[in-house]
Design a protein that fits this description.
The complex is a heterodimer. By secondary structure, chain A is mostly helical. Chain A is built from three helices and no strands. In chain B, helix 1 packs across helix 16, helix 5 packs antiparallel against helix 6 and helix 6 packs antiparallel against helix 7. Classes of the chains: A mainly alpha, B alpha/beta.
Amino acid sequence: MQSYDTEQDWFLTKAQVEERPFTSHTPLLGPLIAWFRTQWNNISAKWYVRPILAQQNTYNRLVAERLSDIDNRLITLDHEHTQLIHDIAELNIHFAQTNQLLQSIDTRLANIEKQEQTSA
Amino acid sequence: MINKTTATPLRIAYFSPLPPARSGISDYSRELLPHLARHAQITLFADDPAQVDPALHAQFPIYSLTDYPSQRWQYDLPLYHLGNSVQYHETTYQLFTRFPGVVVLHDFIWHKFLRHRAVLLGKLPDYTRELGFALGQEGINRAWQFRKGEYTPSTNEYPLIDRLLTLCLGLIVHSQFAARQIPPINRPVRVIPALIESHAGHNLRAQLNWPDDAVIFASIGHVTANKQVDFALQAFQKVQLQFPQARYLIVGQEEPNIHLQEQIDALNLADVARAIGYIPSLQAFVDWIHSADVIVNLRHPTIGETSAAALRAMAAGRPVIVFDQGWYSELPDAGCMKVAPMDADALALTMQQLASDAALRQRIGEAARTYTQDVCAPAQVAAQYGRFLHEIYASYQPGP
């Protein structure tokens, strides 16, 4: 397992697309083939692909940054939501206490009414 | 313990694995409940009430966990026992996150539970959420690295109790070691010692066919890698050379990756060491403790847990050898033998010392028994639970 570099945003580094050098595994002629492909790429594709690559990287970075922003908002909402659940649990206790108090007042009131009826 | 609003007992909804579940927390609840019932009106909630020990049905009303949401108004406080077994705590934890209450955190490193449920139950998004909750954006990245197999966050470095702390109405832990690791938060926290009921035991040595003068060392309880039974066996090998009458007994179910018999054979201890596997009844388990002269109760690394097995051995008046770290450091020096973690020579030396000195074994065992009677007796522990629950409840009552 590789260790994690806290200084770098792991997701942002994954979003960066880069040109790869041409290689060939063909024995003996491999370096020549790779050189030829590189030269042909320089002539035919490089100047066309590079702006697209830059555009893709800009888009990837924007997506990564926007996802990171959404993550941060979700984390904040999660904290707020969790705190609210705690607060509701506290309210539940108050509710239970109030409920019991009302029941006991009800009982006492019934007793008082009963006593009044008896004395009357 | 009285609810001051109406002078009725505090009504507690109690959530825990319950007997016959094969869980230390289930045994804990079995011993706590009869005493806690003197301080509160208890209703039990379980995954499957039909499976719960009939003895508990006779003492308490028991409902399904699914009944709690509609019944919750009938209770003053919910009390949740949480440990890191996904099998026994998943549904209770889900309920806790909806209807928080007071938590008894038996395993301080909550990360283990969260990772197990992520892997075993496929709850990887939940794991991402928990790491994000605790560590922010960095946690999200770490969770995704974990999902890609590039990195495994350290459970000890990140206990991940943040959500649990935010949600709970109060927290009970069993050691100062665990309490010290709790980040500052505006929730009541109480250290209540682990409890142990003292049981009389019978000596089962005759079943082992070992010599009458054998000094029996034993490891007891579930055999996992961090119990370091192989490490203890290596130390025992040295002891056995000096004390041929020494024997080693292993009582408890071994995890599939342990292979105890192979370890015993590899150390040429087949004639003097024996693993007898899982013991289903608590009484038989206690009997085996009473059959040993010394209990070797190692744990490394420690994650802030307490050991019911160590306390059970101490309650039985047996000297216990522990590593000097975590909760184990808080045990009284007179009532156990502490050695530096993973120090093989120190462990062998301590075992030799105990093997050669019956009076020392007796003395330490007696001090251990006294400690458990003074500090860990269920009645005392239950009274502390009662006080803490009442304090929390009272803190929500309106002033005069």
